[in-house]
Amino acid sequence: MTHLLDEALAPTPCMDSDHPALVKLAQEVIGGLIDPREQAVALYFHVRDAYRYNPYQIDLSIKGMRASTVIEQGQGWCIPKACLLAAMCRS
């Protein structure tokens, strides 16, 4: 069972949860929060509020969909922002 969970939580091309900037940011956002629910809520609000939603600059390439690209650009549309949230939760 652990093997399946590890496989499901592994980084992917779009959810690059092992990217150093993403890992550092996720740790900063959750800070000293212990409760997983509180951590998830903090990560959600961070992604929602810290990155501009921009549906007018859609890049469908792997790089354009990558979670770390949202961090680099400070914006994204719904799919890359969802990838960022999932990657931060995985990290």
Question: What do these coordinates show?
Answer:
The chain has a two-stranded parallel sheet with strand order 1-2. With 91 residues, it is mostly helical. The chain has 6 helices and 2 strands, in the order αααβααβα. Helices cover 63% and strands 4% of the residues.
What is the rounded Rg? 13 Å
The rounded distance between the terminal residues' Cα atoms is 19 Å
General shape:
globular
Order of helices and strands: HHHEHHEH
Show the helix and strand layout.
Layout: H1 2-8, H2 20-30, H3 36-50, E1 52-53, H4 62-65, H5 67-73, E2 75-76, H6 78-90
List keywords for this structure.
single chain; 91 residues; mainly alpha; two-stranded parallel sheet; 6 helices
Q: How do you describe this structure in short?
A:
This protein is mainly alpha-helical. It contains 6 helices and 2 strands; from the N terminus they run H-H-H-E-H-H-E-H.
